[in-house]
Amino acid sequence: QVQLVESGGGLVQAGGSLRLSCAASGRTFMSYGMGWFRQAPGKEREFVTAISSSGARKYYADSVKGRFTISRDNTKDNTVSLQMNSLKPEDTAVYYCAALDDRYGASWANDQTYDYWGQGTQVAVSS
After folding, report:
1. What 3-state DSSP class applies to 31?
2. SS3 for 68?
3. Which of 41, 65, 101, 105 has its Cβ near the most Cβ atoms within 10 Å?
4. Per residue of the chain (127 residues), what is the pLDDT tens digit?
5. Which residues are registered as beta bridge partners of 68?
């Protein structure tokens, strides 16, 4: 069982930066691949980025490549972070972190394959 708690959301002006964190409970954190998804009002939830359980592989949606960076710490505090730079108004959404078992591969962009979800944190970018 993994419990996920996001933090770090807020209101920022376009061009600014935010850093989201997702704290995971449980000893098996390092066994799970982690992803970030977002959902804007009136839209479906969409994939943002993901990182493998080892941290060796990272995946990004085209819309955030070069602006967002995912990272994880498997040793110190069981946290996955999302550094968001050059934010745009279209990045406004509720951001969710999620965990999946990637031992046998993973469909990283498919939210249906994730086993655990956090409650979400709001990010608002003003123009």
Report:
1. helix
2. strand
3. 101
4. 889 999 999 999 999 999 999 999 876 888 899 999 999 999 999 999 999 999 999 999 999 999 999 999 888 778 999 999 999 999 999 999 999 999 888 999 999 999 999 999 999 999 9
5. 84
Q: What H or E segment, with its residue span, contains residue 38? A: strand 32-39
H helix runs in the chain, sequence order? none
32 SS3 class: strand
Q: Which two tokens stand for residue 15?
A: 């061009």
Contact 46, 59 (CB under 8 A): no
| HSE-up (13 A, CA, CB side) for residue 38 | 22
User: What is the distance between the alpha carbons of residues 52 and 55, in angstroms, rounded to a whole number?
Assistant: 5
